[in-house]
Amino acid sequence: MSIQLENKKNAEEILELGAILETKVAELYSIFAQKFADDDLVRDVFLILVMEEKNHASFLRSKKEILNTVSHVFGDTLVDVSIFMDAQAQLGSFLAKAKSGDFDLAWALQVAYAIEDMVVEKEYFGFIEVSASGLKKTLDSLLLDSEEHRSKIKSLAEVRGVELTEASVSSLV
């Protein structure tokens, strides 16, 4: 399957798309924290995740600033952004449901786990064409945080008696 050229973006555009996704995930986790504000443990875990997702967005935007002075760090890698577009659509659906307030803890934890699992399974970062690029190294550093997020969500689910499945993100929309 060939990739359409209009789906390919440079490092600066990829970093901004990544920052937008991180911001949307933070917004979703913030809604979860508000919904379960009476449960200190659940609220606190989601508030920590909100802070970390916002930090990821800032991190990606700071790397974007580097491009203005040292563009050779990221090279001229072009990547397929269709996965970003799919993720934005899925996050939009999650946000719409979350904003309606019509969800329970099990759904919130399953969605959070699936989002982080998408990253851990490298579906999210699988679009990089140049394996030694500075862009890939930047995104790989976020992968470690996503593994930690997944662990936090899984631990919280166990404490609250919620069974998580290996559901894909798209099956939860």
Biggest pleated sheet: 2 strands, antiparallel
Order of helices and strands: EHHEHHH
Low-confidence stretches: 1-7, 120-124, 127-132
End-to-end gap: 26 Å
Rg, rounded, reads 16 Å
β-strand amount: under 5%
Major sheet: order of its strands? 1-2
Helix content: 55-70%
Number of E strands: 2
Q: Give the helix tally.
A: 5
| Average pLDDT level | 80
Structural class: mainly alpha
Principal-axis shape: globular
Give a description of the structure.
It is a single chain. Helices cover 66% and strands 2% of the residues. It is mainly α. The chain has a two-stranded antiparallel sheet with strand order 1-2. α4 (105-120) runs antiparallel to α5.
Briefly say what this structure is.
This protein is mostly helical.
Secondary structure: elements and pairs:
Layout: E1 8-9, H1 11-35, H2 40-67, E2 79-80, H3 82-100, H4 105-120, H5 134-159
Antiparallel strand pairs: 1-2
Observed structural traits:
173 residues; mainly alpha; 2 strands; 66% helix; globular
